[in-house]
Structure formats: C-alpha cells, structure tokens
Amino acid sequence: MGRLPWPLLVPALIGMAFLVLPLAGLLVRAPWSTLPSRLAGAQVLEALRLSLVTATIATALCLLLGVPLAWMLARVSFPGRRVVRALITVPLVLPPVVGGVALLLVLGRRGLVGQWLDAAFGVSLPFTTAGVVVAEAFVAMPFLVISVEGALRGADPRFEEAAATLGASRWTVFHRVTLPLVAPGVVAGAVLCWARALGEFGATITFAGNFPGRTQTMPLAVYLALETDPESAIVLSLVLLAVSVAILAALRDRWVTSP
Question: d(Cα 209, Cα 129) in Å, to the nearest integer?
Fold first, then answer.
C-alpha cells in the first residue's frame, strides 16, 4: 500500500481521536485506588447482578423467537417479506425512549395487550424486572435476527436438500442440519444481542423505571450516580467498557479482522 494522502490522514487521525479520547478519559479519571472497594459496593453488585440476569434472559428470549423468525425470512417466500424485514429492523434506528413509549402503549396496564394480560392473568409488566427483560429483548432482537438471517443466506442449501431427499422431516432438517451450519452466526448474533441488552438504557427507564434492586440496571445506575457520586459513575462505566471490549475481542474474527 502507498502512503495515505495528507488530506485523508489528518481527518482520519482526528476521527480516531474523537472516538478513542473519551474512552481514554474514563481510564485516566478512574479512581483506581478505591476501585476494589467501589466494585464491592452493594449498589454496584446489585446493578451488575440485575444487568447480567436480565440481559441473559432477554438473550434467551431473543434466541427462542429470533432464530425461527430469521429462518422464516431467509427460507420462506411470502408476500410482504421485505416489509416485514424492514419492520423488524426498525428498533435498530428507533430512539430507545420511543421504543419504551411504544411498549407502554401496548403492554402497559391500559395498553392494547397489557390491559388483557392484567384482566385475565393479573400480569403487569411495566416497572418490573420482567419489564426490563421485555425492553432489552425489544431493542436487542434485531441484532440476532440480522446475524442469523445472513448466516442462513450464506449457508449451502444442498445439505438441507440432501437431508430432505433422504426422508428427514423439516424439523429434523432444521435442528440436525441447518442449525449446525449456521451455529457461528447464531453465536455471534447471540453475543451481540446480549451486549446490546446489557447496555440498554432508554427503553428500560421508560418502560421499567429506575428502581434499585428491581429495575436499576448498570446503565441506569451510571445515570443516577452521575448526579450524586461521579466517581461511582466512572467505575460503573469502566465495567461496561470492559464488557464491550471483551465482546469485541470474542468476535474479532467475525466482525473486526478484515480478510
């Protein structure tokens, strides 16, 4: 490769600094001397525990619903498939707060579905831990669906056709042939889904609120700590930064490293 022209090098370096310096600021301003004691604080541990639990449950829910959805988009031709695909990806670009408002209008006590859930089963999702899971799954599922659908479209269909020719049922073909073929895509999508759920803020605070021990996840704890204890906010941010770096490191061969 030749030398990078100065008109490209200068803005490239500025762009890199723009993205890296804020992260470096967290490391520079972190209270390293009190970091262990702050990480062991009850508020931090509770928020971390809740974040890990809800993100994991939300990812499991996304796998349960998202993998079949991705298979349908990739393998089944039906009228309006492009429209369905577009609607599924809307949460990727929708402001999370708007997503939280939409969830309230549908699943709130007076919502389209929520009022029926409350009347028939006494179930109310807003401002509960289950509401956190729902909000996280809503914003994270598109990451899984896009990843799995891409893997399905890239998989060689001849293996599935061969299994069907030998008499395997559609379910057998799906779980014995298709899933192993696209397993790397499913894993990558699940990890991205989990990371997105872990960092969700807007939809969570709008739909589930910010109640310590019940709905206060790590991002919400960061927001609250900024007003009362900025150093604790930095510590919480460092934890989320470490998780993000670990996710990128785990997926470097698929998303980061160029061929």
Answer: 10
